[in-house]
Every structure is written in structure tokens, then in C-alpha cells.
Amino acid sequence: MFLRILSLIIKELLASARDPQTRWVVLFSPPFLLVIYAFAITQEISSVRLGVYTQDRGAEARALISRFEGSPTFEDIIYLRSDSEIPAAIDARSVDLVLRIGPDFSRTLERGEHATVQLILDGRASNAAQILAGYSGRIVQDFNEETAAALGIPPLTKLVTRVWYNPNLDPLWSAVPALFAVLTAIVGFMVSALSIARERELGTFEQLLVSPLRPTEILIGKAVPALLIGLASATAMLILGWLVLDVPLRGSLILLYASMVVYLAAIIGIGLFISSLAATQQQAIIGLFIYMMPAVLLSGYATPVANMPDWLQVLSETNPIMHFIVI
User: Fold this and answer.
1) In what order do the strands lie in the sheet with 97-101?
2) Residue 48 bridge partners (DSSP)
3) How far apart (Å, rounded) are the C-alpha atoms in residues 279 and 288?
4) What pLDDT sits at residue 289?
5) Which end of the chain is more exposed for a tag (fewer CB within 10 A), N or C?
6) What does the alpha-carbon distance between residue 267 and residue 22 come to, in Å, rounded to a whole number?
7) 158: part of which helix (H) or strand (E)?
């Protein structure tokens, strides 16, 4: 029994090694995509164009504007001359957000009273608008604390933020582990989904069925090579993220690989199911992408699962990618 399974495993590994498409998918594609996506898919925003419309020429108003000018996030500062220019600038995307300061801003602060400023954002890019609102809020908060200290007024509250696991808020530290989970799944899906479909396309699947191999042995012989290939690809991405992208590797490596085996086993099972329904490799790839799109969206990679409707959260519990992203 074991010799028959071992022979099938070696045969599957050799077939994958001889197939140029499989070699590209397994050896070169995942590390290449990891580097590209890690820098392309990020929530960090830079080179922002800020519109400023101020009706106050006082020192406090100038000090607040200078804080925005000195921030590396804001590349261009465009001064507007009237309220009527604000909608046109936002609509034409000449600016990403507008800081509007009223005429009594400086005088109100000098009296020790609360003053308001208005931040106008482009809601067509909702994610960018939320991030820019956070950037601007921190700048205004720092300005409030220093102004209160200069006027001898203690600030009412002071926010002290500490971020666990990513203290410097490096976008690579959050993007690379999630991409690692998604790309590992893609490798496991591709290798397993093409396995049976390739046999059928070449006409060798019928020979496999009439061989002395039992169905369980065929299943194991198809799953183990995909598992080994997935682990090898995951190891290459792990080394790349650690040594090249400088993402720290903390925790137990043994537990990581143990969970990875369980994760890939679930992924390979789904891939083999898709492959069993496909008559050709093209059909297998189409079926794979039909499954992959909702699986990635429901994994929590792009949006938190907690923000989804209750019935989608229940459906997400069946998604292996969601559980491995948490790990």
C-alpha cells in the first residue's frame, strides 16, 4: 500500500516539475506576487494635495496651516480664495481634501475658548477619506495640546496610542502576513485543482482508475504532492518576507508549520473537489477563480469580517483563508 502511494506521489511531483505552467505558478509566481502586492496594496497614503481656505490671518491660523505644510503626507498645498472654489476643486480632483478655517479662529483661541475648523473630504474615495481624516485629526490634536500649553490651559484629554504587534505602523508588517495566507492558498488550489483535470485531459485518469490503487490511495497520492509543493512555496515566501522585506518572524515556527499543514489540507480538499468536477484544466481554473474571489473577500483580508452581515459572518467561518489570516 505504502509503496503504491509513494509511487503515485513521485509521479505527481515529476508531472508538476515537467509542466512549465506549474513550475511558474509554484516557483516564481508567489514570491514575485508577494513583493508586488506588498508595496502596491497598502493603506498608507502619500503625495496628498491639500486645499486651504482660510478667512483668518492670525498667528494661530498660520501655525495650524504650517503644521499641515510640514507634514510629509501632504505634498502640494493649494490656497483657495472663496467658498465657491471648494466644490469645484473637490469635483475636479485638484485636491484630495480641503482645510477651511473661519474668520474668528485665532481670536477664539486667544480668549481660551473652543474653536472649530472644517475638514472637507472627497467621499468618492471613502477609504482614502477615512485615512486622511485620521492623519488630519492627529495634526489638529497635537496643535490643540501645544496651544493649550502656551495659553496656560490644561488640555481636557490627551490620547496616548500604543499599537501592538506593529508599533511603527509599518504597512508591510500587516500586508505581508495576509498576502502570505492568500498566496499560499492560491498555490494549494492551483496544484490540486489541475491534478485530476490534467489526468483527464491527457487520458491517463482512466488508467489510474483501473490500476491496483484504491480510491483512498489515489486521494492521498494526489493530496500529498500538493501539500509538499504548497509547503515549499510557503517556505520561499516566508524567507523572502523575513530577509528581504524585513518583516519580523515571531512566535513558534513549529506551530506555524503545523497550522499550515492543516490549512493546506483544507485548501487541497477544496481544490481536488473542483478538479473532480472539471473535464479540462481550463474548466478547473475557471472553477478555481469562481471560488477564490468570494473566498478572499470573505477572509477579512480587505474588510473586517465583523463588519459583514450576520449571515455572511457565518458563511465566513467555513473559509479556511479567514482562519489562517488570524494565525
Assistant:
1) 74-79, 48-54, 97-101, 117-121
2) 74
3) 13
4) 81
5) N
6) 17
7) none
CA dist., res. 86 & res. 97, Å (int): 9
Crossing angle, helix 281-297 and helix 171-202, to 10 degrees? 150
User: Model's pTM, two decimal places?
Assistant: 0.66
Give the number of C-alpha atoms closer than 13 A to the C-alpha of residue 178, restricted to the C-beta side: 20
pLDDT tens by residue, 62-79: 888 888 888 888 888 889
Q: If you write DSSP's letter for every residue of 31-96 in order, what string do you get? A: HHHHHHHHHHS-----SEEEEEEES--SHHHHHHHHHHHH-TTEEEEEE--STTHHHHHHHTTS-S
Distance between CA atoms of 235 and 66, rounded to whole angstroms? 48
Q: What are phi and psi of 74, to 5 degrees?
A: -100, 115
Cell (9 digits) for 136: 488630519
For residue 296, the tally of other CB atoms under 10 A from its CB is 20
User: Does residue 187 contact residue 234 with C-beta atoms inside 8 Å?
Assistant: yes
Residue 157 Cα to chain centre, angstroms: 33
Cα distance between residue 143 and residue 67, in whole Å: 8
Q: Is 39 in contact with 240 (CB distance < 8 Å)? A: no
- Residue 157, pLDDT above cutoff 50: no
319 by Cβ neighbours in 10 Å (0-12 / 13-18 / 19+) ranks as buried
